[in-house]
Structures are given as C-alpha cells and as structure tokens.
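Two proteins, back to back. First:
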Amino acid sequence: MNLQEISSNLDSDNARDRMLALASLRNIPASEAVPLIKKVLNDHHVALRSMAIFSLGIKRTDECYELLVNLLRHDPDYGIRADAAGALGYLGDPRAFEPLSRAFLEETDWLVRFSAAVSLGNLKNPEAYDILLQALHSGEVMLQQAAIAALGEIQAIEAIEDLLNFASSPDWLVRQRLAEALGHLNHPQSFAALTYLEKDSHPQVAEAARLARTQLQAKTTQTPESTPESTIE
C-alpha cells in the first residue's frame, strides 16, 4: 500500500483494516509514519492502540517522546500506561529517566511499575540504581525479575551481593534473569554464581548461565582458572 492507501485504511470502520494498515508502516520512514500512527493512538480498539504506542517507540521522531510521556502520565487505562512506559525504553531518549522513575515510584499498578523498571534498564542510566534496588526488594516476583535484568543493563556492580540472594530463588525465571544480568557484571562473584547456575535443574537457567559466563570471559583477560571464585551455598 502507498501512504494514501494506508491513511485511508487507518480511517476504516473495520479494525482489521486499521491493524493491517498500521503494520504496513513498518518499513516507512519515521517522518512519514508517525503522523499516520497518531491517527490511531486513541483508537477504541485496545490492541490497535498498544501496537501504535509500540510503533512510536521504534520510529523515533522529535514528537514521539512527548506523545509517549503524555500517555504515561494521563491515560486512564493502566495497560496503555504500561505500553507507553515500555515504548519509552525502546525510544531510548535520556529525558525519559524522570517520567519513568516517577511512574515506578507513584503508580499503584504493578504492570506499569514493571514496564517502567524494564525501561529504566534500557536507558542504561546508572542513576536508576536506587529505584531498581527498591524494585529488587519489593517482594513482587515480576518486579524482581525486571529489577534484576535492569541492574545488569546498567552494570550495577555494587548490587552484586543483593543480586546473589536470588541464586536459589524458587522461580526459575528469576534465576534465568539473574544469570543473564551477571553476564554484564565483571566481578569475581559473578563467575562463581554462574558456575553454580550452570548446574541448575532448569535447562534454560543452565544455558543462560553458560552463555553469560562465556560473555564475561570474552570481556576479561582472566581465564576461568585464574578468576577468584567464592562458594555459593
């Protein structure tokens, strides 16, 4: 479809037509795509709205940031706010640190807080450390998963002791996120923990630990034999 056809289909009464038109913007330059994406940002079809919001996170024009922040702050639908928080992480605008931090601290819905924590990791801003540590100790498993991944993304070496407390978590996804995060943390205890997690009973945890250990070894001049290791019980 050309742009005129896409624009026309985005105005269709048929939700499927609008969905297909939005999907066809994938390979359209951002400057041309974003004005058309905006046509369905307030669509009554929730899945279509979510798709439009995600598109704003990857198309990156000057107005995408303000559009997403406005949705994060003001939309009455918590799912849409969570989508906006997630899209801000994809957008990668450093200005998003403040609204994402506020969303995590002030929101009551776990899904919005989860998306905000993940996106704070995507921004790779070390100033997110205190907020992510709060998420890590929240007692909510989904928030803990997000925090573990994000602390790895910001390479928070200082969080290593807090992170290693999750090496024996009963939730295998938490252990997998931990293994992946440790692959970003070049620290002797990371090697020890990954050796431990490579023996995990869940194959996805063990594989994540193996890959992370390889990743760490590639970043350091130390060999596995010369790397100091501590024992994890």
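And the second protein:
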Amino acid sequence: MILLDGKSLSEKIKSEIASEVKKDFIDKGRKVPHLAAVLVGEDPASQTYVANKEKSCKEVGFISSVYRYPANLSEYKLLEVVDFLNNDDDIDGFIIQLPLPKHINEHKVIERINPLKDVDGFHPVNVGRMMLNLPCFLPATPFGIMTMLDRYKIETAGKHVVVLGRSNIVGTPISLMLSRKTDKANATVTLCHSYTQDIKKYSVDADILIVAMGKMGFVTADMVKPGAVVIDVGMHRVPASDTKSGFRLKGDVSFDEVSEKCSAITPVPGGVGLMTIVSLLLNTLKASKKEIK
C-alpha cells in the first residue's frame, strides 16, 4: 500500500516554487507574488488555514497579507474590501475565507471578486472556463488532488472514478476535471451524494474513490474495491486529551481498515489539506505572471 503523502509532496512543490521566485522575481528585481486573505469572524478552522497560508507564503518568498474583521462585519463593508483588493495593483490574488457569517451572501461576495485575482477558483467565470477546459484558476482542493494523482503517477485514463459528495468546492469540480479530455484525466466519473441510493454499489466499483462527504469515518473497508486508490478529503476535529492541541484530526474514511485493502490512500492529516495550500500558491504564481488572460 502506498501512502499518498501530502506533506512530503507539498514540501517538494514549495521548494520548486521558491526556486522559481528567486530566479524569476528576486534575482531580476521584479515584485514577488503577493497573496492576500480576508478573514471574517473567529472560526478556529479558518484561522488555522489562514495561518498555514501565511507560513507557506513566507517559505516560498511570497508576500502575504491578512485582512481580519469581526463576525458582525456588514456585507456592504465586506464588498468594499473586495473592491479595494480588486483595485490594488500590488496584490496578485486573494481569497475570501469561507464560511462567512450567515448574514453575508457568499455568492454575492464571490461574484464581486475580479476573476483574474480569484486564486480560489470560485468565481463563475473561472468555474465556467474550467467546465470548457479553458485556462483558468482551478479550485484549490480539486487542483491539489489532480496534482497528487499526477505526481504519484496514478493512471486516470479509462479508470472509473467515484466521487462521494457534490459540493461546489470539491465534489462537483473534481468530477468535471477528471472527466475532461486531457492527458491527466480522461476518466469515467460517477458523482454520488446524500440522496444517492445504495452508495456502496458505486463505491465498490471505483478504481479511484474520492471521498468528500463531510461525515467522519463514512467509508469502511466493505465499501472499497481491493486495490483501489482512496483520496480522503474529510477533516474532522475529535477531542483528544493526549494531544497538545486538545484534538485529533480524522477523515471521512476509516483509515485503519481501508488502508489494509487499497493500493494507495491519503492520510488525515498530512494528505489533501496540505495540497490545497500548495495549489493556492501555484494559482497565485500564475496570477503574478499574468498567465490567465
């Protein structure tokens, strides 16, 4: 069984990015890429993600800015922040950290972002271009999964990929990306969700199983074909008195039992989550180089 190690892979890619930043930006006296994030409220998971983003930016030589606001920030004020970032030529790309407080319309905020600075890949223009297989900023987590499959040389062409979960952030875009006619996709994709009857009927037929259901330990060994590749996108905090943080992270897959049956699997933590941040860096690099027109 191969452990699809997001930690080592993300470190390798960050090293590649850092080398490019030094060679093509710093050594040539050009402005280094600048990634900004907007954080509204005190959600612990969001704060951790943004902190990791800041750390990763520093490691590769990017400038990183974080705009922090209280949870009661009005939608109008947040839209003003988006307009400011859109018009700041020093900032190459930015993200609005989700989820936002319930009184703010996420779709309205995302649609306000300049698509050429939308390094999260959530703007309808980028989503539409992704569907048409045109150059665009890909959503970070699906982009990370595609990169992982490619770097570990996992064949996707002609394979049956089953995706559990149809969110706009992971499930729907990864199913589109893997079905595209490209040398890194060409899979036959089945998209399952909470209303799919007898999910096991589909999951046991998967050559590659991507799990983003948001249900801890949802996939058990009896749901997996022997030799399948399993990608676990789930992330759940479980109280743990024996850890410094006071919690332990678990995925949507019952790792111990499924790992005995599959040919390759991502751990939680140390899998897809780290690749998400790397994808954000890669998108920011593209934005800085004006590769998306």
